[in-house]
Design a protein that fits this description.
InterPro entries: Cyt_c-like_dom (IPR009056), Cyt_c-like_dom_sf (IPR036909), Cyt_CIE (IPR002323). With about 130 residues, the chain is mainly alpha-helical. About 60% of the residues lie in helices and about 0% in strands. It has six helices and no strands. α4 crosses α6.
């Protein structure tokens, strides 16, 4: 008897699920099953970021760089701090500082913490951080 009741309950649940699914529009179904994430391939250009246009150095800094460069975490040169930036610029020059930011150096990972930045975005962020130096 218990088996018959269990089977009947299961059939009832499946029947209700079918009814609910039939009441959904195609748009509701598409929304319900859409992907929740994307795969990022290194070196690929994100189409949505490209469509939005270039970001300013300040926007990039505030979105990705401020976490370390705002307080100087692990020796990161701070925003607009000549004492932090000038020795690096004098020793390496801007191009090598930029290359180090793109490739990663010491505790800084490649491209910093900006997962959707281009090399030009990184350049803009560095130019913003050294403004006035």
């Amino acid at each position: 008897m218990k088996i018959k009741v269990s089977i009947a309950a299961l059939i009832a649940c499946l029947g209700m699920t079918t009814v609910i699914a039939q009441e959904m529009t195609e748009e509701e179904i598409a929304e319900r099953i859409k992907p929740i994430g994307k795969v990022k391939v290194a070196g690929a250009v994100d189409e949505s970021a490209a469509a939005a246009g270039p970001k300013s150095g300040k926007d990039i800094y505030n979105g990705a760089c401020i976490a370390c460069h705002g307080s100087g975490v692990l020796g990161a040169p701070k925003l607009h701090a000549a004492a932090d930036w000038q020795p690096r610029l004098d020793e390496k020059g801007f191009d090598l500082v930029w290359k180090n930011a793109v490739d990663g150096i010491n505790a800084m990972p490649p491209m910093g913490t900006c997962g959707d930045c281009t090399e030009d975005d990184i350049k803009s962020a560095i130019e913003y951080m050294i403004e006035g130096i």
